[in-house]
From TrEMBL, chain A:
Keywords: ATP-binding, Cell membrane, Membrane, Nucleotide-binding, Repeat, Sugar transport, Translocase, Transport. Gene3D superfamilies: P-loop containing nucleotide triphosphate hydrolases. Residues 10-247, 273-512 form the ABC transporter domain. The keyword Transport applies. It is a peripheral membrane protein. One of its GO terms (molecular function) is ATP binding. The keyword Membrane applies. One of its GO terms (cellular component) is plasma membrane. This is Multiple monosaccharide ABC transporter ATP-binding protein. It comes from Marinomonas foliarum.
TrEMBL record, chain B:
PANTHER family: ABC TRANSPORTER PERMEASE PROTEIN YPHD-RELATED-RELATED, XYLOSE TRANSPORT SYSTEM PERMEASE PROTEIN XYLH. Part of the binding-protein-dependent transport system for D-xylose. Probably responsible for the translocation of the substrate across the membrane. It comes from Marinomonas foliarum. The lineage of its organism: Bacteria, Pseudomonadati, Pseudomonadota, Gammaproteobacteria, Oceanospirillales. One of its GO terms (molecular function) is transmembrane transporter activity. This is Xylose transport system permease protein XylH. The chain crosses the membrane at residues 27-44, 56-77, 84-102, 108-128, 135-154, 185-203, 223-240, 293-313. InterPro entries: ABC_transp_permease (IPR001851). Its main location: membrane. It is found in: Cell inner membrane. It is a multi-pass membrane protein. Belongs to the binding-protein-dependent transport system permease family. AraH/RbsC subfamily. NCBIfam families: GguB.
Length: 516, 399
C-alpha cells in the first residue's frame, strides 16, 4: 500500500490555539492512520493535552484556528458530546468515574439503557458483563467503582468508551498511576483493539511503552509539532525521540550569579535528608517516596527534576512539617543537627520554608492584604505578648514590597487583585520574613510571564548569594539547567540520578527519567 | 533586613468621597442603622429614643449582642454554631436549679455556669477541630441535646424567681456615686469618659501611623467621624441618665465589645483566626495551629452563650423550658447583617454589634407600632436578605 493511499482516520491541520497572552498551540499538525496506535509525546506543558481538548471539543470549534478532518469530513465540535457521537473518546489522566456508583451505573452514565425514561437494569447488567469481558475485567457489574484499584478503574473507563461505539480512543498517560503488570495488560488491550480496527492516540512519557506498541510517533514541543516518526518504516531510537522532545535554545533567560559556587568552594552543608520514606495519606499501603537522600549546601541552588506526579511536591511537603503523607520516616539534619520537622511550626522554627506550587490554594489568603500575608508565617516577630504592632508590620511589608519590586500602590491592596507574578513575590516575602536557612521553592515560576520570571530568578540568585540553601522544584528543565548548581532527577518517588551543572543536559535528565 | 528604620512613604491622601466609596462595606450598615433609627423615631412619634425605651432596647438585645460577638469569631473562622440558643437556655436552667432549688449563692453560680458553658463549647469544638466533623452537624446535635437537657433539668416547668443578687445581672444599674440620682451624674461622667477615650485612642493611633508615613484616611473625615461618635455616645448616656442611669448589662456589653475588638484587630490570635477562615490550607502551611484555634473559638462561643443565658434568665427572673428558643437564628442573622462572609475570613466585631442593633431596633420599633409578630418575621427576613445582597453587590463592584 502506497503512502498516499493510506487510510487516514484523523487529520488535524495547522491547529492554533491562543489563551490570553499565551500561544498554547502554534500550527500543530497531527495525522492518525486507521487502525494504528499513535503515540503523542512531549514535555509537560508542550501542548499535548490542549491539542486533545481541541480534538474532543472541550475547546469548541471557533475558539481555535485550523481544521479537523475525521474520516475525510471536516468536523466542527461544539462540545464533548459531539465528538463522542462520532466515536472519538478521550480518557483523561484523572479518571472521570463516580466512586460511589457501581461499575454498571458508571459505564452507562449519561448514556443509560432507557425505555420510556425508565432504566432497563437487566439489559444494563448484561451489556456491562459483555463489555467487562472485552476489557478482561472480572468483576461483578454491581461492584462500586471506589472499591477497585486504579488499574481496574482504568479498565472501567475503557469499557465505558467501548459502550459508546468508539472509533478513536485517546488515552492521556494511562499508565502513569499503574503498576508494571497492570500497564502491560493495558497495552495488550490496545493491541487487541488495533486488531479490531480501533485506532488509538496514546499520550505517554514512557519510551519503552512507545517502542512496544506504537506504529507512529508525533513529537510536540513548545506548542508546535516537531516531527512525526513512522515506526514501521524505520527503527526509531529513544535518543531520537528525546532529542526532538527537548531541543530548544537556552539563550540569556537566566540572570548571572554574583558569586557562583564552584566545586570545592561549597559552603557548609545546611540540609541533609536521608532514608526518607513516605506513604500515601489515604491508601496507606502505597509508598509514595522511596529511600530518598539528598543535601543542600549554603549558597547552593539544588534542583529537583521530574515529571508531574513523580513525587516532587509530596517529598517537599512531607519534609515541611509532614504536611503530606502518613508514616513519614527518615532523618533530616539542619546545619548538622538532627531536626524535628514533625509539625509546620517546628519546621519553620528550624529554618525551613516551603513556597508552594499552588499559591492561590495553599500560599495566600486572597481576601487579605499584602501586609497581612507578608507577616503571616512570623507574626511573633511583629508582636509582643500576642499584640501586633501594626506600624512595624506595615514597615516590614513596605520594605519587602520595595525590595522585591511588588507592583502595587500600597501594601493595603488585597492580594487577589495582584497579577500572578506579584502574588508570587508576596508569597516569597512571607517566607523570606520567616528567616529561613533553606527554602524549598515548588514551581516558583508557574503561570507567570517571562519578565516576572526573570525577576523571580534574580531573587532566587540573591538568596543563594546571601548564603541560604535553595531547593528548586520545576517541571521546566531549561529553568533548572539555567539556575541550579546541582540537579537531582526524580521518578516515581525515587531519586534516579544526580547531575552537576557542568554535565547536566535535558537529554541526560530525560533519559534518566524514561529509562528508570 | 532591619525593620526599625523608618522610611517616609507618604501616600497622597484620597478625597473624602473616594475614601467613603472604597469603605462602603465598613460604613454602609452603620448608616443603615442610623437611618432605621431615624425612621422609627419619626414613625413612633419619638417613643423609640425615650430614655425608658432606650434602656429597654439595651436590655432586650444584650444577650443577642453578647452571643453575636462569639458567633462572629466562629463565622470568621469559617464555621457556624447552631447550638447557642439551646446552650443559653440550658445554662439559664442550670442557674435556676442551683440558685432556687439548692439556694447556692450567686457569687458561686455565675462562675460555675460560665465554666460549664466553656466546657460545652469546648466539647463541640473538639469534634469540629480535631475530628473534622462539620460544625453544622455537631452544633445541630448540640442544639437538640441541650434543648432536651433543659427540659430534663427543669422537669418541664418554669423555675424561679431568682434571688435579688442574681437579678442584678440584668436589671441592675450603676448607682450614682455623686448622689444626685436624676439625672444620673455617674452615667454622664462615664459617657464623657468613654467618648473622650475613644477620641484619644483614635488620635494617638492616627498620629503614630502618620509618623510611619502611612495613613489613607482623610483628616476631615477623621474629625467628622470621631466627633459624631463622641456626640452620639454622650447624647445616649445623657438620655439614659435621665431615667435610671447605665444598666449593668450595658457596661458588660461595652467591656466585651472593647475586649473583642482589640482581640480581633490587634492580637496574633485574632489575626490567625481571620487567616484560618480565609484559607485554612495556607494558614496551616504558614505554621498556624488551625485545630487549636478552631477549638478555642468554639469554647469561647460556649462561654459567651452561657453569659447570655444568665442575663436572659435574670431578665425574665425565671428559667423556662422555652428560653433561648430560636435565639441562634437572630444571632446568626445579626452577624451576617453586620457584613461577615459565609465562607469565613471576613467580618468585624463592631459590624456584628451593629447588625444586632439593626435587628433589635426593628423588633422594638415594630412592636411599638403594633405590627404583629407575623409581619415582623417577614420584614426581618427581607432585611437580612437585603443586607447580604448589598454586601455581595459592593464586593462585586469593588473587583
Amino acid at each position: 500500500m502506497g503512502c498516499f493511499m493510506e487510510n487516514i482516520i484523523l487529520e488535524m491541520r495547522s491547529i492554533t490555539k491562543t489563551f490570553p497572552g499565551v500561544k498554547a498551540l502554534d500550527a500543530v499538525n497531527l495525522k492518525v492512520r486507521a487502525g494504528e496506535i499513535h503515540a503523542l509525546v512531549g514535555e509537560n506543558g508542550a501542548g499535548k493535552s490542549t491539542l486533545m481538548k481541541v480534538l474532543s471539543g472541550v475547546y469548541p470549534h471557533g475558539s481555535y484556528e485550523g481544521d479537523i478532518l475525521f474520516n475525510d469530513e471536516t468536523v466542527a465540535f461544539t462540545g464533548i458530546t459531539d465528538s463522542e457521537e462520532k466515536g472519538i473518546i478521550i480518557i483523561h489522566q484523572e479518571l472521570a468515574l463516580v466512586p460511589l456508583l457501581s461499575i454498571a451505573e458508571n459505564l452507562f452514565l449519561g448514556n443509560e439503557n432507557v425505555e420510556g425514561g425508565v432504566i432497563n437494569w437487566p439489559k444494563t447488567y448484561s451489556r456491562t458483563q459483555e463489555l467487562l469481558a472485552k476489557v478482561g475485567l472480572r468483576e461483578s457489574p454491581s461492584t462500586l467503582v471506589g472499591q477497585l484499584g486504579v488499574g481496574k478503574q482504568q479498565l472501567v473507563e475503557i469499557a465505558k468508551a467501548l459502550a459508546k461505539d468508539v472509533k478513536l480512543l485517546i488515552l492521556d498517560e494511562p499508565t502513569a498511576a499503574l503498576q508494571e503488570n497492570d500497564s502491560a495488560k493495558l497495552l495488550d488491550l490496545l493491541l487487541e483493539f488495533k486488531a479490531q480496527g480501533i485506532s488509538s492516540i496514546l499520550i505517554t512519557h514512557k519510551l519503552n511503552e512507545i517502542s512496544r506498541v506504537a506504529d507512529s510517533i508525533t513529537v510536540i514541543r513548545d506548542g508546535a509539532s516537531v516531527s512525526t516518526l513512522d515506526c514501521r518504516a524505520q527503527s526509531i531510537s529513544e535518543e531520537d525521540i528525546i532529542r526532538d522532545m527537548v531541543g530548544r535554545d537556552m539563550a540569556h533567560r537566566y540572570p548571572a550569579r554574583k558569586n557562583p559556587t564552584e566545586e570545592g568552594h561549597l559552603g557548609k552543608t545546611l540540609l541533609e535528608v536521608s532514608n526518607w520514606n513516605v506513604w500515601h495519606p489515604e491508601a496507606v499501603d502505597r509508598q509514595i517516596i522511596h529511600d530518598i537522600a539528598f543535601n543542600v549546601h549554603a549558597g547552593e541552588i539544588v534542583g529537583i527534576a521530574g515529571l508531574m506526579g513523580s513525587g516532587r511536591t509530596e517529598l517537599a511537603m512531607s519534609l515541611f512539617g509532614q504536611s503530606y503523607g502518613k508514616n513519614v520516616q527518615g532523618e533530616v539534619r539542619l546545619r548538622g543537627d538532627v531536626a524535628d520537622l514533625s509539625t509546620v511550626p517546628k519546621a519553620i522554627k528550624s529554618g525551613l520554608a516551603y513556597v508552594t506550587e499552588d499559591r492561590k490554594e495553599l500560599g495566600l489568603i486572597l481576601e487579605e492584604t499584602i501586609q497581612t500575608n507578608t507577616t503571616l508565617a512570623n507574626l511573633d516577630r511583629v508582636s509582643s505578648k500576642g499584640v501586633i504592632d501594626e506600624n512595624i508590620e506595615r514597615q516590614v511589608s513596605e520594605d519587602y514590597r520595595k525590595a522585591l519590586n511588588i507592583r502595587t500602590p500600597s501594601v493595603f491592596q488585597k492580594v487577589m487583585n495582584l497579577s500572578g507574578g506579584n502574588q508570587q513575590k508576596v508569597v516569597l516575602s512571607k517566607w523570606l520574613y520567616s528567616q529561613p536557612d533553606v527554602l524549598i521553592l515548588d514551581e516558583p515560576t508557574r503561570g507567570i510571564d517571562v519578565g516576572a520570571k526573570f525577576e523571580i530568578y534574580s531573587i532566587i540568585n540573591e538568596l543563594a548569594d546571601d548564603g541560604k540553601g535553595v531547593v528548586m522544584i520545576s517541571s521546566e528543565m531549561p529553568e533548572l539547567l539555567g539556575m541550579c548548581d546541582r540537579i537531582y532527577v526524580m521518578n516515581e518517588g525515587r531519586f534516579v540520578g544526580e547531575l552537576d551543572k557542568t554535565n547536566a543536559s535535558q537529554e541526560k535528565i530525560m533519559s534518566m527519567i524514561v529509562k528508570a | 533586613m532591619t525593620t526599625k528604620e523608618t522610611s517616609t512613604v507618604v501616600q497622597s491622601a484620597p478625597s473624602v468621597t473616594s475614601y467613603l466609596k472604597s469603605h462602603m462595606r465598613d460604613y454602609g450598615m452603620l448608616i443603615a442603622l442610623v437611618v432605621i433609627m431615624g425612621m422609627f423615631q419619626f414613625l413612633t412619634d419619638g417613643t423609640l429614643m425615650r430614655p425608658v425605651n432606650l434602656t429597654n432596647l439595651f436590655l432586650q438585645n444584650s444577650y443577642i449582642i453578647i452571643m453575636a460577638i462569639g458567633m462572629l469569631l466562629v463565622i470568621v473562622a469559617g464555621h457556624i454554631d447552631l447550638s447557642v440558643g439551646s446552650v443559653a437556655g440550658f445554662i439559664g436552667a442550670l442557674a435556676a436549679v442551683m440558685s432556687v432549688n439548692y439556694d447556692l449563692p450567686t457569687i458561686l453560680v455565675v462562675p460555675v455556669c460560665l465554666v460549664v458553658g466553656l466546657i460545652i463549647g469546648g466539647l463541640q469544638g473538639y469534634w469540629i477541630a480535631y475530628w473534622k466533623i462539620p460544625a453544622f452537624i455537631v452544633t445541630l446535635a448540640g442544639m437538640l441535646v441541650f434543648r432536651g437537657l433543659t427540659l430534663a433539668l427543669l422537669e418541664g416547668q418554669s423555675v424561679g424567681p431568682f434571688p435579688k443578687s442574681f437579678q442584678l445581672l440584668s436589671t441592675g444599674f450603676i448607682p450614682d456615686v455623686f448622689g444626685v440620682g436624676r439625672p444620673n451624674v455617674t452615667a454622664l461622667v462615664l459617657g464623657v469618659l468613654a467618648a473622650s477615650s475613644i477620641v484619644f485612642l483614635a488620635a494617638r493611633s492616627r498620629s503614630r501611623a502618620l509618623k510611619y508615613g502611612i495613613q489613607d484616611e482623610p483628616f476631615s473625615f477623621f474629625i467628622v467621624k470621631n466627633a459624631l461618635v463622641a456626640i452620639a455616645i454622650i447624647y445616649l448616656s445623657y438620655l439614659l441618665s435621665t431615667y435610671r442611669g447605665l444598666p449593668n448589662v450595658l457596661m458588660t456589653m461595652a467591656v466585651l465589645i472593647a475586649v473583642y475588638t482589640f482581640l480581633t484587630n490587634s492580637t496574633t490570635i485574632g489575626r490567625r483566626i481571620y487567616a484560618l477562615g480565609g484559607n485554612v490550607k495556607a494558614a496551616k502551611l504558614s505554621g498556624i495551629n488551625t485545630e487549636r484555634l478552631t477549638f478555642l473559638t468554639f469554647a469561647n462561643m460556649g462561654m459567651l452563650a452561657a453569659l447570655a443565658g444568665l442575663i436572659f434568665a435574670a431578665r425574665l427572673n425565671t428559667a423556662t423550658p422555652k428560653a433561648g428558643f430560636a435565639m441562634e437564628l437572630d444571632v446568626i442573622a445579626a452577624v451576617f447583617i453586620g457584613g461577615a462572609s459565609m465562607t469565613g475570613g471576613v467580618g468585624k466585631i463592631i459590624g456584628a454589634v451593629i447588625g444586632a442593633f439593626i435587628m433589635g431596633v426593628m423588633n422594638n420599633g415594630m412592636s411599638i407600632l403594633g405590627i404583629g409578630i407575623d409581619w415582623q418575621q417577614v420584614i426581618k427576613g427581607l432585611v437580612l436578605l437585603a443586607a447580604v445582597i448589598f454586601d455581595v453587590y459592593n464586593k462585586q463592584k469593588a473587583r
